[in-house]
Design a protein that fits this description.
mainly alpha, elongated, Tetracycline Repressor, domain 2, about 5% strand
Length: about 280
C-alpha cells in the first residue's frame, strides 16, 4: 500500500515563519530594554510586519513577553536539571563537591550562550534584565526557575547538612546574582579591563565562577565567618539546631513524561570541610 505524503500547509508555514520572526525581534528588544521599554509598534517595525498582525498573534505586550520568556525557559531548566543529575550519577553523592555541583548547574546555559547564536545571547540578556527588575521580573523568575533553583539549594544542603539554613539561600542569591549579571553582557568588565576581558566571553566566565563560588560558599556555610554588622543595629540571623534537623532534603526524580521534578527524599549526605 502506497503511503500518501501530506502536502505542506502553506498558511501554517507562513504563520510559523512570521511568529518566529516576531518572537526573535521581541526577544532582542526585551533583552535590551526590558518589559516597559518596548512597544508592540517597536516589535512590528523591526520585524517588518503590521502592528495589527502582532496583536493578532499575541493579543498584547504581556502575552508577547510571556511567549518570549517561555520559549527557551523549559530547555534551560531541562539542561540544568539533567546536567546536575548526570553529575550526581557519575561521581556518586558521596563524592560530589561544591565546585562540581555549581559547574553542572552553570555550564549548560553558558554553553548555549557561547555556541547557540544571537538568539540565545538575547535570551540571556533578557533573563539578566528580568532578575534585576523587581516590578516585573521577580514574579517571572519565580514561576519559571524556582524548581531548578530549589534543587540546587537542596544539593548545597545535602553537601553541607550543618550549614545555617539562611546561608544556603544566601549562597544561591550571590551565585545567581553574578550569573544573571553575566547574562546581561553589560560590557562593564570590557571597559574596566581595557579590553582584556569581554562580558560576552561565556566560556571564560563559566570556567571561573565555579571555583570562585565553591570557595566562598564553603567558607560562609562551613566556617560561619561574618562581616561585623554590630554598627548596623542588628546581628545576623542564624538557624537553630532544631531548624537544621527538621529541614527537608532535596532529591530529583523523573515523572511519567520524563520531566525532572524535585522530591523530599533523603539521599546520602556528606559533610564538607571547607578550606580555612
Amino acid at each position: 500500500m502506497n503511503s500518501v505524503k501530506a502536502r505542506p500547509n502553506k498558511k501554517e508555514e507562513r504563520r510559523e515563519v512570521t511568529t518566529r520572526k516576531i518572537l526573535d525581534v521581541a526577544e532582542s528588544l526585551f533583552g535590551e530594554r526590558g518589559l516597559y521599554g518596548v512597544t508592540l509598534r517597536d516589535v512590528a517595525r523591526d520585524a517588518d510586519v503590521d502592528t495589527s498582525l502582532v496583536h493578532y498573534y499575541f493579543t498584547d505586550k504581556t502575552a508577547l513577553f510571556n511567549a518570549v520568556f517561555a520559549r527557551r525557559a523549559q530547555e534551560v531548566n531541562d539542561m540544568r536539571m539533567l546536567s546536575m543529575l548526570k553529575y550526581e550519577t557519575e561521581v556518586g553523592r558521596k563524592n560530589m563537591t561544591l565546585e562540581g555541583i555549581i559547574h553542572a548547574w552553570l555550564r549548560p546555559f553558558f554553553e548555549k550562550l557561547a555556541e547557540g547564536g544571537s538568539g540565545w545571547r538575547s535570551y540571556g540578556a533578557l533573563v539578566g534584565t528580568a532578575n534585576s527588575s523587581p516590578s516585573w521580573g521577580t514574579q517571572k523568575m519565580t514561576e519559571t526557575y524556582d524548581q531548578v533553583a530549589l534543587h540546587l539549594i537542596g544539593l548545597f544542603r545535602d553537601l553541607m547538612p550543618d550549614a545555617p539554613e539562611e546561608d544556603l539561600f544566601w549562597s544561591y542569591h550571590f551565585l545567581t546574582g553574578a550569573t544573571t549579571f553575566s547574562l546581561a553582557q553589560t560590557g562593564r568588565v570590557d571597559a574596566l579591563s581595557g579590553g582584556l576581558c569581554s562580558s560576552t566571553d561565556m566560556k571564560a566566565i563559566a570556567a571561573r565562577m565555579p571555583p570562585l563560588f565553591a570557595e566562598g560558599i564553603a567558607a560562609m556555610c562551613g566556617q560561619g565567618r561574618r562581616a561585623d554588622v554590630s554598627n548596623w543595629g542588628k546581628t545576623a540571623r542564624r538557624s537553630s539546631p532544631a531548624q537544621i534537623a527538621n529541614r527537608p532534603r532535596a532529591a530529583a526524580k523523573s515523572n511519567d513524561d520524563g520531566a525532572m521534578t524535585s522530591s523530599s527524599a533523603k539521599p546520602a549526605r556528606r559533610t564538607v570541610q571547607p578550606k580555612a
